[in-house]
């Protein structure tokens, strides 16, 4: 059942009434059931009622199950509804054909009651989790835009009259144009760019930098990963480690800050923006790229961008305590990666952008994707593999060996999902 205690709805499609009666009897105590005796009728019902799951016979006259499933997946209204084929077909290739049509699973005839209920329950739970994630992602842009509007108003109020009539107007117009372009980009790339721009820009303002310098930091934030557009963008996956890239992929990845800087090469007034873009992957403790800079040799704006990048990625990797987890991860990445003297500048803006009204109900732990784990995090639950073998115990603090153990098991698909860690304000 959903949050309103309404039972999930299941559409049963079969041209034999006896099969429909059997499946309905197995499921009617837990779910709301609708039925269809043909593919055409099934498509009409699915489009108008949007069932949570469809049990679909394969062998039907006029329009078989494969054709019905393909039609469902080709329609934006019904493409997200999971389809389970119920069939007596056992020939090699039948399952492959079904999966290619868009089905998520098969139930073979004659059906077994416990199997039907278990498969239905499992796929409804998976759909509920996917719907929740989709809802979270769809609201991200709205929440971000609302927060940015508030921050922008505060920034404008702090500008002096002289600044508002100076060359800053040109930068402001450019930023508004770029920001509008990125707003049109519906994917995570555009949302990330805007968030990092606001995080780093507001931190720069809190440091009492001039309005012009703040505008340049914001511009660098919007364009910091512009060098990844095209083929390189595909490498910047949040679940892909550099160690998993081929030599050619690493070379392309390490070149993207240089590609970004090239955009500013012909504009003298923006050379410092180009340097921020070039250096945003440098590490405060050394070992970054492309130049291996460290400490204050890294441009200030690039150090701010690096912190904003870690905060944005961390805040959007968990579903509760987002701002607290993001700030904790930033602190744990200092001083090896981030400038520890700048991190506190991000406290207020991070809480503003990633405010979570449910955080007080969520406890002081979060489920973290393995790609976001860093040394120093403390486990709030045991970590076991798919075989039930205990890998790490609750209360252990992660170090390099623990991280390596978790990631190796993830690569072998022995750990599914995230790892639970405590959220704390200070180490």
What is the succession of H and E elements?
Answer: EHEHEHEHEHHHHHHHHHHEEEHE
Helical element count? 15
CATH superfamily caption of the largest domain: Hypothetical protein af1432
Radius of gyration from the alpha-carbon trace, in angstroms:
26 Å
Task: Return the CATH topology of the largest domain.
Answer: Hypothetical protein af1432
Helix/strand/pairing category: alpha/beta
CATH class (first level) name of the largest domain = Mainly Alpha
Overall outline: elongated
Largest sheet: 5 strands, parallel
Fold and architecture overview:
The protein is of the alpha/beta class. It has three domains: 9-128, Response regulator (Rossmann fold, 3-Layer(aba) Sandwich); 159-356, Hypothetical protein af1432, CATH 1.10.3210.10; 365-422, Molybdopterin biosynthesis moea protein, domain 2. It is built from 15 helices and nine strands. The strands form three sheets. Strands 2-1-3-4-5 form a five-stranded parallel β-sheet, with helices on both faces. The relative contact order is 0.06.
Can I get a quick summary?
With 427 residues, the protein is α/β, with parallel strands linked by helices.
Give the SSE map.
Elements: E1 9-13, H1 17-27, E2 32-36, H2 39-49, E3 53-57, H3 65-74, E4 83-87, H4 94-101, E5 105-108, H5 113-158, H6 161-165, H7 168-184, H8 188-206, H9 211-223, H10 247-262, H11 271-279, H12 300-315, H13 322-332, H14 347-353, E6 365-368, E7 383-384, E8 390-392, H15 400-411, E9 419-422
Parallel strand pairs: 1-2, 1-3, 3-4, 4-5
Antiparallel strand pairs: 6-9, 7-8
Helix pairs in contact: 2-3, 5-8, 7-8, 7-9, 8-9, 8-12, 9-11, 9-12, 10-11, 11-12, 12-13, 13-14
